Amino acid sequence: MMKWFVLIFCVLLLVAFLVPFVVTRIENQQVQQNLIRLNEPQPESTNPDKVAVIVFSRSGNTAVLARHLAEKTGGALLFIQAEAYAPGLPGWVNAMKDARSKTAVITPESIDLSEFDTVFLGAPIWLYSPAPPVWQLAANTRFSGQHIVLFNTYNSHFEQSYIDAFETLVKANGAQSFEHVAVLRGRMGSQLSTEEMLRHFDQQFDWP
Ligand SMILES: Cc1cc2nc3c(=O)[nH]c(=O)nc-3n(C[C@H](O)[C@H](O)[C@H](O)COP(=O)(O)O)c2cc1C
After folding, report:
1. Which residue ranges of the chain lie beneath pLDDT 70?
2. Is residue 60 in contact with ligand 1, taking CB distance under 6 Å?
3. Which ranges carry the Flavodoxin-like domain (predicted)?
């Protein structure tokens, strides 16, 4: 009996160590693929004073969606960086640890959005909630009557209560209206391709 207990414990321990390595390996492949797209010359923003697309992305998927949004809207594309969550194992561990936090060290700390009418704010879902950097940016920002669109990519689940709390935050900070869109990419190993992800997004977003 004791022998089985030790064996099961060892297997569980092995899995607990292996999962982060496998996950970060897959993520790193996605980073490389997404960078090819993200490094392509960006089309000039034709509507920069109306629409801003701001994104935090760890492995590049939400960033590719943000770029697509900027192309569709002609808006200005801006990135939020958070060094603690850089691709790789330490970044993944930090991301897991902080996942439901609403605070993060971000660059830039805030963005002047006064000239924009519509602001798209994007981030991946971490442990059912939008990743901390987008909460931090929303907390640091004074909105001035804009329409805010929170957009997320995720693998399987998010929790609506976090989205509702995000709406409350941006409205308390001056946003006029709020909308949420999210693309379900599927679990690792059976995820949508980038093209499929963008198509799924377009199907559910009510483009003007
Ligand atoms: C720390 C961490 C926690 C995650 N938690 C969830 C989760 O709760 N639900 C989910 O569907 N996906 C979860 N994911 C998957 C990401 O939301 C998904 O892969 C996303 O598309 C990644 O976006 P990015 O490439 O822009 O970083 C998690 C990923 C990480 C790194």
Report:
1. 48-49, 207-208
2. yes
3. 51-206
